[in-house]
Amino acid sequence: xxxxxxxxxxxxxxxxxxxxxxxxxxxxxxxxxxxxxxxxxxxxxxxxxxxxxxxxxxxxxxxxxxxxxxxxxxxxxxxxxxxxxxxxxxxxxxxxxxxxxxxxxxxxxxxxxxxxxxxxxxxxxxxxxxxxxxxxxxxxxxxxxxxxxxxxxxxxxxxxxxxxxxxxxxxxxxxxxxxxxxxxxxxxxxxxxxxxxxxxxxxxxxxxxxxxxxxxxxxxxxxxxxxxxxxxxxxxxxxxxxxxxxxxxxxxxxxxxxxxxxxxxxxxxxxxxxxxxxxxxxxxxxxxxxxxxxxxxxxxxxxxxxxxxxxxxxxxxxxxxxxxxxxx
Length: 328
Known about the structure:
Blueprint: H1 3-14, E1 23-27, H2 35-51, E2 54-59, H3 66-72, E3 78-80, E4 83-87, H4 91-103, E5 109-117, H5 122-132, E6 137-141, H6 144-153, E7 158-161, E8 180-185, E9 203-206, H7 212-230, H8 235-261, E10 264-269, H9 272-281, E11 285-287, H10 294-301, E12 309-311, H11 315-327
Parallel strand pairs: 1-2, 1-3, 3-5, 4-5, 5-6, 6-7, 8-9, 8-10, 10-11, 11-12
Helix pairs in contact: 2-8, 2-9, 7-8
């Protein structure tokens, strides 16, 4: 399936759980430097808008409260932000997910498309206990192997495949001119597999994150949320400002990602959404897998349908692929 088919598939799946005119909450806004999670959030906004669903409450892990959510969305489903943090690797996000599910045992809760990663142990047992007690839980999983795993681990939940919601952002046009042969967008966290990615003498290496005036702007956009946390009595009054800041912060991170990726004629990356953004730009991108294999799984399922995205098994294959792409 191409981009249009990915979007249509996603809308069809979401329409079975969300009705036009419905008012919903979304928790776990990505209030951090990962541009890929910001792309997912903006894609979610696009899908909800196309479905005619009203998003009346958004909160990150630090700003979420039961009372605020109930005040703004007294009935209706609660959405949990999509991404790649459903499991025991990213404990803060998993704790947030489990807290919301436990806080609202009688509300419909929809986990938007995630990759799943659990090892046997106490974290999995706790997740199974909390999720297993919820009678109206839907888990949308963004790759088919993850769907099978989620059904095994959480048999009482409704589990369904749904493509990554970042594709809701749509095609990206940019007039920026490449300044390097290769832009390497490399992870610097626990999901990294390759210690180094060197594929061309004229390459620039970066990871997600704001610098310079963009970092200052990002801090300013986080200021209302910090004030809300320190003075909870003003949270309801400041919420409309905070919501606009959330959306602006997400756009800032995505535009910064586009700026970075545009600096290379070819992109090489071990970040899923660097590959997705490059694909939406129509820029040639060579994707390497990460530690939990989510890039390979999603490439196999549908990312391979984006023509400019190429998947390789390792650095040697990446070098070959880069040479071919630069020669075109």
